[in-house]
Amino acid sequence: MNFMKQYENYRSHFEVYLCNQCAGMAFEPQILTESMRYSLLSGGKRVRPVLFFAALDAFGLPYDGEEPLAFALECIHTYSLIHDDLPAMDNDDFRRGRPSNHRAFGEANAILAGDALLSLAFEIAVSECGRSGRHLLAAKSLAHAAGASGMVAGQSRDLLCSGRAGGEEDLLQIYRDKTGRLIAAPVVMASLLAEKDEKNAEEYGISLGALFQITDDILDETGNRSALGKSVGKDAQEGKLTAVSVYGLEGARRLADDYVRKCHETLRGMRGADTAFLAGMVDYVYGRDH
Predict the structure, then answer these.
(1) Are 246 and 264 in contact, with CB atoms under 8 Å apart?
(2) pLDDT digits (tens, 9 = 90+) for 182-227
(3) pTM above 0.85, yes or no
(4) Residues 119-158: pLDDT tens digits?
(5) Angstrom distances, CA of residue 245 to CA of 166, 225, 235, 240
(6) SS in 3 state form for 253-287?
(7) For the chain, domain boundaries
């Protein structure tokens, strides 16, 4: 399997669907539509839709026809980025090489764009529930991953631990909730649709999410803005709780190695699934420079 070729197949399939959905948006006032489109169409790796399509493939289900749930995933992820960049949160002026939504449209409009994307995601997910009980379970798992027991809880703890508060236990919980839950969600949703082992799917996604966040922490220390498309060095400036602040740079790299092993161990437990691409995703996240 050529991993990058397959990744691009999944990504481009989703990108066509995303562009068509954005072209059909006509919310009023127009600035709401413009600000939603601005962030949805700002590029990015589309990791969550790609994982959803790949996991469906791994479990033997076609991904053609399941694009709405992938779109719901991306709407939630995009809303979280808009809100994460706000002055009251991470206060970042750049995202994916462009001004953050609040820099382009103003803080109030950015908040509303995020609110609208979150609501749109669940409008889509609820619409899919009528297809089968499995789709209902998938939508419910997405809501759980995004909310007060998942990503929002992780963001809340992240804010609470800013200013050099908190320690290793808090850090790992932030990784599990803030990043891990929404990266695990597409794999869990696919497992529910395929009626496969949900536990291993979730643990793989949680570990992959932790790996993703650790590499983010390392890149904030060692990367450059032109490659990352966002500000660097902010974690240390703001006293954020990160793998680098807790373990040091070399310790963070060793922690990343540990999560690579955890991901591959969990994949070996997913019997009857073709996990080659999911294994390749681990190495892709581990080796990324942006």
Answers:
(1) no
(2) 999 999 999 999 999 889 999 999 999 999 999 999 998 887 655 5
(3) yes
(4) 999 999 999 999 999 999 999 999 999 999 999 999 999 9
(5) 11, 20, 9, 8
(6) HHHHHHHHHHHHHHHHCCCCCCCHHHHHHHHHHHH
(7) 3-287
pLDDT per position as a tens digit, 148-189? 999 999 999 999 998 767 899 999 999 999 999 999 999 999
C-alpha distances in Å from residue 150, one per residue of 147, 190, 271: 5, 18, 27
pLDDT at residue 229 in the model? 54
Q: Which residues of 75-89 are buried (b: 16+ CB within 10 A; e: fewer)?
A: bbbbbbbbbbbbeeb
Query: Percentage of the chain with pLDDT > 90?
Result: 86
pLDDT band at 271 (very low <50, low <70, confident <90, very high): confident
Q: Which amino acid is at 130?
A: G
Q: Long-range contacts for 215-221 (Cβ within 8 Å, ≥24 apart)?
A: 215/256, 215/285, 215/286, 215/288, 217/242, 217/243, 217/244, 217/252, 218/243, 218/244, 218/249, 218/252, 218/253, 218/256, 219/288, 219/289, 219/290, 220/244, 221/249
Q: Could you identify the residue written with the tokens 């989703």?
A: 14
Can you tell me the distance from the alpha carbon of 59 to that of 33, in angstroms, rounded to the nearest whole number? 36
What fold is seen in the domain 3-287? Farnesyl Diphosphate Synthase (1.10.600)
* C-beta of residue 249 within 8 angstroms of C-beta of residue 224: no
User: In DSSP terms, which residues pair with 98 in a beta bridge?
Assistant: 95
Amino acid residing at 93: D
Evaluate whether 98 touches 42 at the Cβ level (below 8 Å). Answer: yes
Tokens read off for 280: 């390749």
